[in-house]
Amino acid sequence: MSANYSDVVTTAREYYNSDDADNFYFHIWGGEDIHIGIYQSEDDDIRVASERAVATIGERLKGLGPEHRVIDLGAGYGGAGRWLARTYGCHVTCLNLSEAQNRRNREISEQQGLGHLIEVIDGSFEEVPCEDGSFDAAWSQDSILHSGHRARVLDEVDRVLKPGGDILLTDPMQADDCPPGVIDPVLERIHLDSLGSFAFYREQAARLGWKEVEIEDLTPQLVRHYTRVRQELANHREALDGKVSEAYIDRMIKGLGHWVDAGAKGYLAWGIMHFKKP
């Protein structure tokens, strides 16, 4: 990792590379898709809801084809990239800071016969190792919160995107009217001093000259997702013996509770943000 990467990004890399985190996210959170899902009922399977979120976002890119290139910033295990490659035949670059997740991404992509369309790069979205104007679309699900320099990340998105390119983002955020201090338990758990917001992303889009195509507020899905993950973790605790430590499980159950509580009180936000570079 470059010495120029922020402390927050370095902390996130070390966390996601740990055996505890890798096994928790792969076995409990959603497997190929470790992002907030879209639920149709309270007892929806997490993986099904996560896949539904990818498809719901991906439908906004119906014009993609084999001649197009997409970058997924903070790609996790690469589920979204494979969905895009399988659905549209496009080439996807998965940029992700966790080497452990990237190994799984490469293995799964090869197993599914999509390795020729998926490039996995170890790196940070604060310094994207790609040429200017390389991509037709930029995609990021629930990852930019981990940056200590979110505006820099969006600068990098703008730099590597071609004119007319689409930007599709989701991110766990604080509500635009969130009172100071009330989400400190959430921030402390993930080693952050702030979260983004719909207002923040709108302001940054305006700064960069991006056109707002659509912002769909789906905040209730954040509360449902963290509730479901917390339930599944508690229900499958014994099955994780030898894969995830008891101390990690205890911390995660407590931390997920902070997210659920803050979301239920209206302090958090989540949704799909679609912008276009002129």
Notes on the protein architecture:
With 278 residues, the protein is an alpha/beta fold. The chain has helices spanning 7-17, 19-29, 46-58, 79-88, 99-111, 150-160, 184-189, 198-208, 219-235, 246-264; strands at 69-73, 91-96, 118-122, 135-141, 161-170, 173-174, 211-217, 268-269, 271-276. The model has no long low-confidence stretch (mean pLDDT 92). The chain has 10 helices and 9 strands. Strands 3-2-1-4-5-9-7 form a 7-stranded mixed β-sheet, sandwiched between helices. The protein has a single domain (7-276), classed as Rossmann fold, CATH 3.40.50. Helix 3 (46-58) crosses helix 4 (79-88) and helix 9 packs antiparallel against helix 10 (246-264).
How much helical structure, as a percent, in the residues?
Answer: 40-55%
According to CATH, the fold-level topology is: Rossmann fold
Number of separate structural domains: 1
CATH class: Alpha Beta
CATH architecture: 3-Layer(aba) Sandwich
- Sketch the major β-sheet: 7 strands, mixed
User: Mind telling me the CATH superfamily name?
Assistant: Vaccinia Virus protein VP39
Give the secondary structure arrangement, pairings included:
Layout: H1 7-17, H2 19-29, H3 46-58, E1 69-73, H4 79-88, E2 91-96, H5 99-111, E3 118-122, E4 135-141, H6 150-160, E5 161-170, E6 173-174, H7 184-189, H8 198-208, E7 211-217, H9 219-235, H10 246-264, E8 268-269, E9 271-276
Parallel strand pairs: 1-2, 1-4, 2-3, 4-5
Antiparallel strand pairs: 5-9, 6-8, 7-9
Short key terms for the protein model shown above:
single chain, 278 residues, alpha/beta, Rossmann fold, 7-stranded mixed beta sheet, 10 helices, 9 strands
